[in-house]
Amino acid sequence: MKRLLDSLKKIVGADAIITAASELMVYECDGFTIDKNRPDVVVFPTTTEQVSKIVEACNYFEVPFLPRGAGTSLAGGCLPVGGGVVISLARMKKIFDVDYRNRCALIEAGVVNLWLTNHLKPQGYHFAPDPSSQGACTIGGNVATNSGGPHTLKYGVTVNHIMGIELVLPDGEVIHTGGPLEDNPGYDLTGVIVGSEGTFGVAVKSWVRITRNPDTYRTMLGVFNSVDDATNTISEIIGAGIVPAALEMLDQMILGALEDAFHFGFPLDAGAILIMEVDGLEAGINTEAERITEIALKHGAREVRKADTEAKRTLLWKARKQAFGAVGRLAPSFCTQDGVVPRSKLPHILREIQRIGLKYDLKICNVFHAGDGNIHPILLFDERFPDQVTRVLAASGEILDECIRVGGSVTGEHGIGVEKINFMSKLFTPDDLAMMIRLRNAFNPTNNCSPHKMLPTAGACIEASKAGRMAAM
Amino acid sequence: MSFSDSLNPLDGFQHKHPSDVLEACEIIKQSAANLDAIVPSGSGSKMNIGYAPSRKGVVLGTKNLNKVIDYPARDMTVTVQAGILIKDLKELLGKENQRLPIDDPYPANSSLGGLLATNTSGPRRFGWGTLRDYVIGISILNDEGVETKAGGRVVKNVAGYDFCKLHTGALGTLGVISQVTLKVRPNPEASAFLLLTLNLANVESVLDRIHNTKTRPVAVELLNKTALQHPLFKHLAVTSDYGIFIGFEHSTEAVKWQTETLANELADVPNSKLEIINTPSDSALWQALGEFQAARISGCPLTFKANIPSSKVATFAAFALDTIPGVLLQAHAGSGIVFGHIPEGISRQVAFNSIDMLLQKAVRYQGNLVLPYCLPEWKADFPVWGQTRPDVKVMRKVKESLDPKALFNPGRFVDRI
Hints:
The complex is a heterodimer.
Chain A: H1 2-12, E1 17-18, H2 21-24, E2 41-43, H3 48-60, E3 65-68, E4 85-88, E5 95-99, E6 104-108, H4 113-120, E7 125-126, H5 139-145, H6 152-155, E8 162-168, E9 174-178, H7 189-193, E10 202-209, E11 211-212, E12 216-224, H8 227-239, E13 246-251, H9 252-262, E14 272-280, H10 285-298, E15 301-306, H11 310-321, H12 323-326, E16 333-336, H13 346-359, E17 363-369, E18 377-381, H14 386-405, H15 424-427, H16 430-443, H17 460-465, H18 467-472
Parallel strand pairs in A: 2-4, 3-4
Antiparallel strand pairs in A: 1-2, 5-6, 6-10, 7-11, 8-9, 8-10, 12-14, 12-15, 13-14, 13-17, 16-18, 17-18
Helix pairs in contact in A: 1-3, 8-10, 8-13, 9-11, 13-14
Chain B: E1 14-16, H1 21-34, E2 37-41, E3 57-61, E4 68-70, E5 77-81, H2 86-94, E6 98-99, H3 112-117, H4 125-128, E7 135-141, E8 147-151, H5 163-167, E9 176-183, E10 185-186, E11 190-198, H6 203-211, E12 219-224, H7 225-228, E13 242-250, H8 252-265, E14 273-278, H9 284-291, E15 302-307, H10 313-323, E16 328-332, E17 337-341, H11 348-364, E18 368-374, H12 392-402
Parallel strand pairs in B: 1-3, 2-3
Antiparallel strand pairs in B: 4-5, 5-9, 6-10, 7-8, 7-9, 11-13, 11-14, 12-13, 12-16, 15-17, 15-18, 16-17
Helix pairs in contact in B: 10-11
């Protein structure tokens, strides 16, 4: 390790390396805090060339490595299983070139999602994927996990907005896939690198598509007495052929925490609320908003409020996007799940979540991307009590199993990471997984880059020893 | 043995049309054992794309794999077998007032699998995206004759690698697409075009203005005079250098506002004529604009497709006209895609030199130029897949990893993968 450290110092300088145990603690996990493992070293390159040399050095000394953005991911994608080198891209934060005429931009991986949108704002553009963590998460992390967010219902997820990638392959070679233009001949490597959770190499730069801001919004708050009424309304809106910009559900428990934190004026006696937003041109938008309002009222909304000023809309979205921060008011620990169901199964899965909560004597609150069928049940507990941890793990597993049973998935936007690695064999057959391993081997034949991620065979000894814990959280 | 591109590329192939997936898998297993090439084919409408296969084998037709597996219309997804014809898929979705907003030149004769393998798109790509934005689940018959899947049936899903993207546009070189799950969209309430006919001198500035319009077009199609004389468009009686069709699909109110607003924005273009054409989204004009890029022009030896920056479309079109007088041009101008049909009578050498000049121009713009159609006897020398990109090294590794025996469409795709 000392020889590797000497090499790394030569590449990036001593001030771009962390080795002290106290400082490494920050890098022992991401937003998935159940499993932790300290890396041996964290290195902060500032150029692609440095990343390439770091990767070569790691390979030479046979030390595993993995990239890391802001560490906001929620499935252990940044967890350095088995130690090794964390390549932090936090210092690679340049926005090189924004081409408004051709609607694309070249940026480095460490650029924070919201910085990019703020950068584009004066010209009337934004970067469409808007994960709730957008104030902190990086574009590189968005690329790794194929992040979503509330507005992906209309605008698509990260992969729909990534046109090309500069990738340092696991052997240190630098390649460019795609680019600023569409329809490059050959395989869509960009499309398959996005969402590969760092297992295909280190994505250091991206060509991203930039999107014109809508002229106007209509943001409404549907207030429902029951979760059932709210989920039925979601199903009816989508079924009516309306594609809102966002359709988010919050239940009573989370509303209480949010009201304490943001003082928005949420109706605390409501069983659930729906944030329903349409956007686009001024022409026709009132008709669309009225159609949604009618559907909500017809399906049990006791009222539909309008967030009719920019200040109200901003506060509403701030409350929604920081909902997870407010959960600390409800319990000392929480576990967020990321299941997906066909949209018409939302009423069913929400009832199941309630049933599972009662079965395991756990409080579960819900705040999620309802329009996409992407649920985020938040299981509340206190990690100081092992029995509670056990029950949370069991309940989480049961919720995700039910998502699979009704034709859904165990992750809509957080990724598999290490957290859901054991669910892969429930979603996919051994033959399906074998093809994924073959694809990974095309990029990463030694599996020295981001080992033990996504695919269950990646590090059988490690996962097997902790299968129960990792499977559910 | 190696095939000559001057022969019918599929002469000597066995043609098999399995009745189900199991039978298709058996054919693959047999072919793999014999190291025979496997050429996946839907309806066969796009078989002229790419080089001839580098060895003989089996054409595996998927026309009987055309079942609708699941259509939960309220979830706005549909799962079908890949051999389904686009027209049948349209009809199915139309019953629920939904659609897949991807243009196919010949919906009556093309299959979904073929559409996907060739990543076909058309005018609507500017507003509605391309197939990579709609495929959420895929099943593939792999090199071992096993059906494997990736993705799923829900609209948001990041479990596992995204093979949907990898197979879209892979020309069937990584396996046979057997089943697909798509996101679908509601049909728009209304649709219309603004047709602006104008002189060459003003095309660039007008395209810039359309880029900055207050409206939100879903298609911006630029056609030159020669193209507009084709039977598909002749009834429009355009006599100017160019015609720009700006398409809108939205609510009735929004379409009306947009056509009127854009007409006002463009009212001062010199020597131009504006016409609003209210026409449904399944009209002959939409179909013609989707079809023309793949139209077989009598005597046309090749069709090129360039991908360049949207801002360079007017310059590139003018350069193409200078280089190849009489070329029939259509650009999906908002997306930077330019198609050109080379007119009858051009010699092989002149065509070769001209295509090389256009290719170099596109490459200078960080783009490329490929030949979706080319006389088979010309293919050996012509840059059918444009200039090879450096990332082809990784593409080769992907191919070798997923199809180590090079069974699927050997030699047909980029760099003769």
